């Protein structure tokens, strides 16, 4: 590697992309291209269908009443331009750095580094929410109680995801394929067996809290729809990104939109708005009301299974983003080391340590992880705005520009309707950008 490239390895300094691309394919920092269209569909579905489908429908119903169905329908439609845009980005600019690479190409190193660091921090801080959600379902299933038990089981769930990713991408993707098909079959079964308990009268009044409440429901429900950018981090491991990404993304958008809208409708028709039901246990509530306590336990078991699938996908994306930032010099380069099988082992170990610190922090502070959901959605929308703006600048064909305009407009509308979480997300990104600027001036 040239001296010019070596001098750019300092933290948040300019990146020599030509040098990065020209690294020998046999180098120990090179990922292996082993994934196809089917694998991408699996990772799209397992990334997006997870904790959101268990937590969000009940919360959205509580915020906006039956009118929350409008939020789900809007998001299901908007998912297609979102999916198309991110698929095109990954096909044209395949990089494990994902959206931060695209932003860097369009707006320069500083904004790209800020976006990458912001996404990385968001992943490392918010991902344990998945493990804690699994822990709550599992504790309910086993009859366990106590905040400490929830935290320990949650950390065990995150550790399981880290270990699964250490097995290597080829084996992990095959296991994930089996899990995702089982997951979809389980969700469809819950919807089908709960539907006979539907009562149309529950849809009236349709908007008991006013139509303005739909905006809040959209922001919360968006938590179930973000993750398109997450699959872009696997681009360096896809055999034919230009063909595979568009096919996989649009197929996944159809599957996810149909699942979410169907489940949200059944929840609105079956679960009484004032039932005192735990909003973080949608599947359990549906089966308890429709078939009794025994079926509710099966719902809890399915929920744990679903979240474990989701955890594997999100740990995968977080480790690839950290690997890419290390490879490109944004964080220490030693974290870009991979095994002979192409597994970024150093990045996975760092993710595991960060998850442990998150759990310790929650134990010390005694906080509730559910408060992170609106902030996580708003923070992702901030990155989406930059990504779609970058797409408008980089792509010249009219169709792609139109897709980016539609996606950018939708993202801005969702963010503006988010209230305080949106403001906090913008301030957090500004703080990250400020850190990047100050760090670059000091080196």
How does this structure look, described?
- This protein has one domain: Amino acid/polyamine transporter I (Up-down Bundle), CATH 1.20.1740.10.
- Helices cover 73% and strands 0% of the residues.
- It has helices at 3-7, 17-21, 37-48, 51-64, 68-92, 99-107, 109-126, 128-142, 147-166, 169-194, 213-222, 228-231, 241-270, 282-291, 293-327, 345-365, 372-394, 398-416, 420-442.
- The radius of gyration is 21 Å and the shape is globular.
- Residues 1-28 have low confidence and may be disordered.
- It is an all-alpha fold.
- The longest helix has 35 residues, at 293-327.
Percent helix, as a range, is over 70%
- C-alpha termini separation: 21 Å
The domain tally reads: 1
- What is the assigned CATH homologous superfamily? Amino acid/polyamine transporter I
Number of strands: 0
Number of helices: 19
Average pLDDT taken over every residue: 80
Radius of gyration: 21 Å
Q: Provide the CATH top-level class.
A: Mainly Alpha
Largest sheet: none
Outline type: globular
Class derived from helix and strand content: mainly alpha
* CATH architecture verdict: Up-down Bundle
Q: What is the string of SSEs from the N terminus onward?
A: HHHHHHHHHHHHHHHHHHH
Proportion in β-strands: under 5%
Looking at the structure, the CATH topology is Amino acid/polyamine transporter I
Low-confidence stretches: 1-28
């Amino acid at each position: 590697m040239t001296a010019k490239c070596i001098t750019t390895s300092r933290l948040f300094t300019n990146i020599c992309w030509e040098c990065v691309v020209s690294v020998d394919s046999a180098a120990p920092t090179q990922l292996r291209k082993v994934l196809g269209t089917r694998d991408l569909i699996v990772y799209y579905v397992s990334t997006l269908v997870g904790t959101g489908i268990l937590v969000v429908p009940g919360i959205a119903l509580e915020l906006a009443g039956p009118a929350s169905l409008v939020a789900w329908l809007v998001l299901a439609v908007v998912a297609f331009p979102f999916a198309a845009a991110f698929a095109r980005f990954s096909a044209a600019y395949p990089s494990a750095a994902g959206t931060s690479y695209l932003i860097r190409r369009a707006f320069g190193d500083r904004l790209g580094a800020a976006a990458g660091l912001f996404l990385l921090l968001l992943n490392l801080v918010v991902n344990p929410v998945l493990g804690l959600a699994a822990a709550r379902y599992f504790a309910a299933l086993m009859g366990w109680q106590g905040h400490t038990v929830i935290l320990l089981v949650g950390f065990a769930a995150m550790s399981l995801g880290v270990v699964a990713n250490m097995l290597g991408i080829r084996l992990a993707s095959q296991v994930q394929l089996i899990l995702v098909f089982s997951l979809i079959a389980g969700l469809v079964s819950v919807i089908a067996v709960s539907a006979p308990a539907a009562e149309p009268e529950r849809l009236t009044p349709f908007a008991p809290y006013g139509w303005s409440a739909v905006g809040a429901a959209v922001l919360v429900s968006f938590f179930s729809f973000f993750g398109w950018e997450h699959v872009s981090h696997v681009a360096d491991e896809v055999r034919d990104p230009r063909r595979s990404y568009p096919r996989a993304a649009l197929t996944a958008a159809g599957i996810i939109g149909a699942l979410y809208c169907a489940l949200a409708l059944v929840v609105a028709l079956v679960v009484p708005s004032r039932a005192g039901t735990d909003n973080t246990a949608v599947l359990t509530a549906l089966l308890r009301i429709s078939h009794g306590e025994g079926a509710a336990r099966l719902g809890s078991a399915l929920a744990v299974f679903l979240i474990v699938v989701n955890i594997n996908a999100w740990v995968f994306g977080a480790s690839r983003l950290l690997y890419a930032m290390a490879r490109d010099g944004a964080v220490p380069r030693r974290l870009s080391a991979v095994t002979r099988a192409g597994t970024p082992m150093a990045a996975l170990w760092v993710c595991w340590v960060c998850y442990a610190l998150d759990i310790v922090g929650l134990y010390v502070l005694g906080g509730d992880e559910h408060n992170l959901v609106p902030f996580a959605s708003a923070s992702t929308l901030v990155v989406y705005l930059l990504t779609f703006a970058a797409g408008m600048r980089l792509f010249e064909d009219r169709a792609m520009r139109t897709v980016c305009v539609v996606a950018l407009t939708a993202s801005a509308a969702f963010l503006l309707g988010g209230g305080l979480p949106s403001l906090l997300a913008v301030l957090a990104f500004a703080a990250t950008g400020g850190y990047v600027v100050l760090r670059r001036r000091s080196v």
